[in-house]
Amino acid sequence: MNIVCLDLEGVLVPEIWIAFSQASGIPELKRTTRDEPDYNKLMNWRLGILKEHGLGLNEIRATIEKIDPMPGAREFLDELRALTQVIILSDTFTQFASPLMKKLGWPTIFCNTLEVAADGTVTGFKMRAEKSKLVTVKALQSIGYDTIAAGDSYNDLAMIQASKAGFLFRSTEQIKHDYPDLPAYEEYGDLLSAIKAALN
């Protein structure tokens, strides 16, 4: 029995923090897990910038409402879900994900939670589990699933490497260089073909 685990940002939708960086005019917020492997360090740094500029969840959600899935992402996901079970494993937050899941046809997503004050100030974040993508893949394997995984960033590498088949999708040149053994794709059709081959 197979199950496909996909990253969200950079694979199916644009990076939320990059979009918010552009909308807010704060270039520092362009930094993502493609640049910083330590997610806790990255998020604490982001929260510091939000506090410094007096920005909160309401401003971020206003940006997210305007984000559309990448061209072809919905069709890719629909075709994949017709073939096998799919779970999106993301380090984003439930408060960010809903508008994007609606545009993607409400796929299943496992992600994290922000701690938000009544006025919308983001005061902290709660991770679902330590190394949540790897932990989830291992848990699925423990109940009889073979996992197939795809992602673009440092925080996807563990789930990709732990899976029966794993792929980089629209990753950075640095990550592709550092992990030359991982098949890397740029187009949904090519990724879909690779996943189909792995399903057999």
Describe the overall structure:
With 200 residues, this protein is α/β, with parallel strands linked by helices. It has a domain at 2-13 and 69-111 and 128-199: Rossmann fold. Helices cover 44% and strands 20% of the residues. It contains 9 helices and 7 strands; from the N terminus they run E-H-H-H-H-E-H-E-E-H-E-H-E-H-E-H. Strand 5, helix 7 and strand 6 (165-169) form a beta-alpha-beta unit. Helix 3 runs parallel beside helix 5 (94-103) and helix 4 packs parallel to helix 9. The longest helix is centred in the N-terminal third of the chain and has 15 residues, at 39-53.
Short description:
The protein is of the alpha/beta class.
Write the layout of secondary structure elements.
Elements: E1 2-6, H1 16-24, H2 39-53, H3 57-64, H4 73-83, E2 85-93, H5 94-103, E3 108-116, E4 122-126, H6 132-142, E5 146-151, H7 157-162, E6 165-169, H8 173-178, E7 184-185, H9 188-199
